[in-house]
Design brief:
single chain; binds alpha-D-galactopyranose; 6-stranded antiparallel beta sheet; mainly beta; 2 domains; 9-stranded antiparallel beta sheet; 3 helices; Beta-galactosidase, Chain A, domain 5
Length: about 375
């Protein structure tokens, strides 16, 4: 009897061991380490995605934050191209949305008020008279469930968060899935998907602060291209006025690659209204076409070249006008004014209050989808 049980047991152990090796195998290329503890005791982990060409992205389950993004320059030297912090405590207490997922509504809603199907909703006012980036505790401050995955040529993370009916004043249980995928062509793709059980509004984006010069100094010499003929002028509280203005002949014209600093100090009212610099939404010419480039950034010194593709209708370009060298970032860097190019692919600000803007309403039974690709190379 014993003679028969032993081989069966051994076989069973082998099968269990082998299948556990198999299930770990799909995840072993994505490493996971401890990053910190939330005030409520939740653990924050940092996941590392690495591709065959040395591009490496580190992501927190707190806010889905891209904490580090290493990219080779023209000499093959890797450097971190996004602003951020070393500690969780700084992310919790000081972060101006560094690298985070933004929701439910990226950008501003005037007076934090909108009406949907005859009901009026009031949101938290965290930006003067307006609601910004989801309110007091937006998606950038939530713990997301994270599941790593790999395929032959990619590695990535599936992030999930359920925002309950009434959270931050928004209606409907909103089920949000975000997938981060890094491939071997140095393209990092973000896919957003959401469903709701009641009519609601949403505007999802990632708020990475790019600085292709290893996060050092200003970006005034980096060359920006925005594939947009028009932009949305704002009022003194950064709410679009409703006008759609041509960029032609203005400092807002980035249709050909232009140094960010070339016109940033021009005597142009729109630059002065947003704390000196750029903080506006451009209407993309790409009209949702993911294979046509929407924006690019080039660092002429180190050759790093970023191209952005998106299905979204707009892009907010923010030049770090509120940064003032007081934050102590990674690698000992401080972040002066104009030390970043933030490019948030999204729907237009205050869309719920502008019937002429593309709709941001999500109804039960429908699924929201959007995708953005960040492709790095050198020139
Ligand atoms: C967005 C806004 C800016 C600023 C930053 C965060 O990009 O448009 O005005 O609030 O977020 O500091």
């Amino acid at each position: 009897m014993r003679n028969r049980i032993l081989p069966v047991l051994a076989a069973l152990i082998c099968i269990i061991f082998y299948s556990s090796c198999q299930s770990n195998h799909s995840q072993e290329r994505v490493s996971k380490s401890f990053f910190g503890i939330m005030p409520n005791g939740d653990t924050v982990f940092r996941y590392t995605l690495t591709n065959a060409h040395g591009e490496q992205i580190k992501v927190l389950n707190y806010g889905g934050i891209i904490q580090s993004w290493l990219v080779p320059d023209k000499n093959g030297k890797r450097g971190d191209v996004v602003l951020g912090f070393d500690s969780l405590d700084q992310y919790i207490k000081q972060s101006p949305y560094f690298g985070a997922l933004i929701g439910r509504f990226a950008n501003r809603i005037a007076h934090g008020t909108f009406t949907l199907n005859d009901s009026t909703y009031h949101l938290y006012l965290n930006d003067g008279p307006n609601s910004l980036h989801g309110g007091a505790v937006g998606f950038d401050k939530k713990i997301w469930t994270v599941i790593p995955f790999t395929t032959d040529s990619t590695e990535g993370l599936k992030l999930h968060y359920v925002s309950k009916n009434g959270e931050e004043g928004y209606p409907g249980d909103l089920d949000v899935h975000v997938t981060y995928t890094l491939n071997n062509e140095n393209a990092f793709r973000i896919d957003y998907e959401a469903t709701t059980d009641k009519p609601t509004i949403l505007n999802l984006t990632n708020h990475s602060y790019f600085n292709l010069n290893d996060g050092k100094g200003t970006i005034l010499n980096e060359k920006l291209m925005l594939n947009a003929d028009t932009f949305l002028p704002v009022d003194s509280t950064s709410i679009p006025t409703g006008e759609i203005r041509s960029v032609a002949g203005t400092p807002m014209d980035f249709r050909t690659p232009t140094e960010v600093g070339a016109h940033i100090d021009d005597n142009y009212r729109q630059l002065q209204l947003v704390h000196g610099g750029y903080d506006h939404n451009w209407i993309l010419n790409t009209k949702g076409n993911l294979s046509e480039v929407a924006a690019s950034v080039y660092d002429p010194d180190n050759g790093r070249f970023l191209q952005i593709y998106t299905t979204q209708p707009g892009i907010q370009f923010y030049s770090g006008n509120f940064l003032d060298s007081t934050l102590h970032g990674k690698d000992g860097n401080v972040y002066p004014k104009h030390s970043t190019i933030v490019l948030e692919t999204q729907h237009y600000p205050d869309s719920p209050n502008e019937p002429s803007f593309p709709s941001v309403v999500l109804n039960p039974g429908d699924t929201f989808h959007s995708s953005t690709i960040y492709k790095f190379s050198v020139k």
